[in-house]
Amino acid sequence: MPFKFEQLDVWKLSLEYSDLIYEIAEQLPDSERFNLKSQITRAATSISLNIAEGSTGQSDPEQNRFLGLALRSLIETVACQRIISRRNYVTDKAAMNLLDTKAQELAKRHHAFRKSLTNPKKSISEEQAPYDIIEN
Question: How far is 56 from 46, CA to CA, in rounded Å?
């Protein structure tokens, strides 16, 4: 049985985005191995990890908090993309445009998912686990 997060479209899209980030990161010069390459791949990984971690919460507000962290990581990757473009580290403009398009799509899906958590009529939180009360 898959985990809840594995069924989330926003998580699946975050993996696709992360794959693209890793492809771009491999094109960075060796001088950026411990700076931009490390930063952008850690931020991209953080997106998926926070979405997954938030899905285990027992409340929509808790999941929303982790989604907020994922969004911050997404914005961090976009900022890294801008630096990469500005420094002309990646000359494949089509790849950079695809990355930007995926980032925008992920941000839109992310916002829609967060919005659904604030709508009490469309709750998607996990059910509380039933616990038996043992009386002494």
Answer: 16
Q: What is the 3-state secondary structure (H, E, C) of 79-98?
A: HHHHHHHHCCCCCCHHHHHH
In the predicted structure, residue 129 carries a pLDDT above the cut 60: no
What pTM was estimated for this model as a whole?
Answer: 0.84
In order of start, what are the domains of the chain with their CATH numbers? 4-118 (1.20.1440.60)
Q: Please report where in the chains the tokens 């958590």 appear, as a residue.
A: 117
d(CA 47, CA 77): 10
Tell me: pLDDT of 125 over 60: no
Three-state DSSP class for residue 67: helix
Do 51 and 14 touch, CB atoms closer than 8 A? yes
Residue type, 131: Y
Q: How far is CA 115 from CA 68, 94, 101, 127, 130, in A?
A: 11, 32, 21, 19, 28
